Amino acid sequence: MAQDTAPEAATWLQIAVNAERDHVRGGDAPSAVKVLIYTDFLCPYCRRLRTVMKQLRQSLDERLAYVFRHFPNERAHPGAEFIARAAEAAAKQDRFWEMHDWLYSQQPPIARESVLAFAGSLGLDIERFRRDLDDDEVWQRVRDDIEEGRRNGVTGTPTVYIDGMRYDGAWDFHSLLEAIDRPVATRVGRSARAFASLPASGGIVLLASAAAALVCANTALAPYYQLFINSSFGIGPAAHMLSLTVGAWFSEGLLAIFFLLVGLEIRREMTAGVLVDRRAAILPVLGAVGGVIVPALIYLALNRGRSAPGWSIPTNTDMAFTLGILALFGDRIAVSLRVFVAALAVVDDILSVLTLAIFYPRGFDAGWLVASAVAVALLFAINRSRVYSAWPYAVIAVVLGLLLHSAGVHASLAGILLAAFLPTRPTPRPELLFGQVATALAELEHAEREAKQALTPQLPIEQQPVWDWATRNLAAATDRLTSPAERVERAVAPWTAYLILPLFAFSATGVNLSVNLAAPDARSILFGVVAGLVIGKPLGIALASLIAVKTRIAALPEGVTIPSFVGAACLCGIGDTVALLMADQAFTPGAAETAIAKIGVLVGSSLAALLGAAVLAASGLQHQTAAMKEP
């Protein structure tokens, strides 16, 4: 499955807290929690957060370590860079925290003369302080924090990290206290978020589900596993279209949500991503086409007759595993190579959808197909009518899935059609939204000040009419920043990665490994799938890309070496859940041929992962060796 390659704030700090370099206050307790904040002395929100941090330090004492890193915004807060240098100049004489507290206590603008006067009151060497204010070493110390913040994706202040993980919650005292003090629910949530931040976390869950299915299918649990997968679930008699086995529900029902996410990713990349520019898109497009054709040809060269329909099984790639393995190589792999692989995944998904629709129909029923077309027309109509609520689209999509199933088309394609019609709003005018938000916040602040100054007791601000009015406006402005398509994609992505695909893998991968390889076509199917994934995928991607580069239709991604490109192409031989779906479509679910094909996917994927990782490791070592030899 394709993954979003848009840059965002890093979940984890790239450089951990270093007491020798960073400014750290408190935290002498062995289990102290480190709260690192990228901040600007003149930022009004940083000033407000500082009062919350003081409360937290009073409550937690030495269990809290407050870590300060500079991120002055001179354009928004003129004088911020000078103030940051002043704090570092004081740090050269071991007075950082005294200067820190004083700077935060002053109302901007803070004059140079006032800073010098306070430095003198601290007993600092004023001449040395003056020199340090203009010293390149001091300014470089501030710039180092800024550059490190940008590498972490920091764009504004304050940006908070708790024990190295970015904190995206509210900045009030109780929210931060809960995140720091960590009751059981918070610890579970933090652990889940930490796991989800791993590049290959979705692939790990998928692998665990497949392993569990293999255990169930090859132990004494096998009868219970088969009973669960083959039990009917639905409304009405078994022949009714709403009555399917659990395995079929996972295959058609749950995978419709997966294909919805695929469709949204394809749409985004074609409108605002790597597939917008024709020249930038041509290399992954041709690479993906080659990565489908060559594995199919290799499979067909080994399989004739009744085993030939399995040609599509080795044509799909699991991008969760592929990009996860690429991420493990860190800076040794060029970013442009990851972008190429992600773009290739988008095209690969498109080709998989077309393969399902064109080559694996179950016998068309014209009546249900016409009804499906009517449902698609309804999606189009409400999209053109600018209906921005998501639920009408969801209702029609559910009906569309049932109609497609009855028409003989795989119901999961309803997800792709839904993705095509979910509305994307025009880009909002930010100045109007900023005004709406600023007005709502200003009214809340005004009401709070009046409540504090009132001589007689008043209702708490959250019980006053202004609270409801302000929260409605803030919610409306926030809602306008994202389109229904974006909101659905964000909501669906975690469910897809950690529930939908693992459930499908659990139902589709449970094959009995004691298959009879002496059966007709067994070995040819197994070798065809393995060879298609391990040899055909990288060969097809590499050949198509080489032709495109040699004919100057496209260029090799910047900074990518031939060996690393080949290594990434080898990783694309890792088959995913769609490959397992193709096996069920090509052969009869539960048949010996299906089981052998799925074993081939597992074996071929493992070999492709090992081969790709080995080639990438060798290419990285070769690059380092060449760099060491350069004068």
How would you explain this protein's 3D organization?
- With 631 residues, this protein is mainly α.
- The chain folds into three domains: 174 residues, Glutaredoxin (3-Layer(aba) Sandwich); 318 residues, Na+/H+ antiporter like fold (Up-down Bundle), CATH 1.20.1530.10; 52 residues.
- Helix content is 64%, strand content 5%.
- It is built from 24 helices and seven strands.
- The protein has a five-stranded mixed β-sheet. Strands 6-7 form a two-stranded antiparallel sheet.
- Helix 1 links the parallel strand 2 and strand 3.
- The longest helix is centred in the C-terminal third of the chain and has 38 residues.
- The protein is globular.
- The chain starts with 22 loop residues before the first strand and ends with a helix.
- The relative contact order is 0.11.
- The N terminus and C terminus are likely disordered.
Q: What's a concise summary of this model?
A:
The protein has helices at residues 44-60, 80-91, 96-105, 112-121, 126-133, 136-151, 173-181, 184-196, 201-217, 222-230, 246-272, 278-302, 319-328, 335-359, 366-384, 391-407, 413-421, 430-453, 465-481, 484-508, 522-550, 562-571, 577-586, 592-629; strands spanning 23-26, 33-39, 64-70, 159-162, 165-167, 232-233, 244-245. With 631 residues, the chain is mostly helical.
CATH architecture of the largest domain: Up-down Bundle
CATH class of the largest domain: Mainly Alpha
Strand content: under 5%
Strand order of the largest sheet: 1-3-2-4-5
**Rg computed from alpha carbons, rounded to a whole number of angstroms:** 29 Å
- Give me the CATH superfamily of the largest domain: Na+/H+ antiporter like domain
Low-confidence stretches: 1-9, 623-631
Distance between the termini: 43 Å
Helix content percent band: 55-70%
Shape: globular
The count of domains is 3
Q: Tell me the structural class.
A: mainly alpha
